[in-house]
Specification:
236 residues; alpha/beta; Rossmann fold; 7 helices; 9 strands; globular
Amino acid sequence: MSLHIAVSEKAKVAQTVLMPGDPLRAQFIAENYLDNPVRYSEIRNMYGYSGTYKGVPVSVQGSGMGMPSMGIYSWELFDQHGVENIIRVGTMGCFNPEIHVGDTVLALATSTDSSYMNTFHVDGQYSPSCSYGLLTAAQEASKETGIKVNAGNVLSSDHFYEAEEDWWKNWQRMGVIGVEMETAALYSNAAFLGKNALAIFTVSDHFVLDEWATAEERQTQFTDMMKLALETAVRL
């Protein structure tokens, strides 16, 4: 048992964990995709489940919103629960007009406006990146399932509401394809602890196009990224 994750005697955390931000999305994945799911933790209602997918042990753990929350849960999973691979499944806002709401995105690397990197005392600008092994497994899964993916640099921001309306345009100009709030912390924790991480997103809203998804669609209907993450997990 760690400070924020309690593992029951009936279920252990698997070496590969899917991490949505929303604990209700964790519940949805466990109940709809895992065989014999068991909830191992409900501290602060941040649900964690273990089960199997195609015979392979897989866990699903909510992370909460923002890098501090992702930093806590992913660190404890990596450092105190023996987890080797974390695949984030979440939503993002998109800056690229060629990518639409409902499309699937892989984060090759993350830019960030966060001070989270300060904890690692790196004297310079560190670029948090995904793990190559997870990336290649996801590409293989994409080909076999027919789930089309886009890939690129994604911004992990500490801010959901921005005071300046056009704040995102400079990031867009640098080729950043969208924004979310957790992945830089996940990738940095994985790098520091010698573990593996990959973020898979569904585009939920758009900064260029007049497209957005409802709260219900965000929670239960963005299933391609869930399927892709699970198919990635069984290839590790």
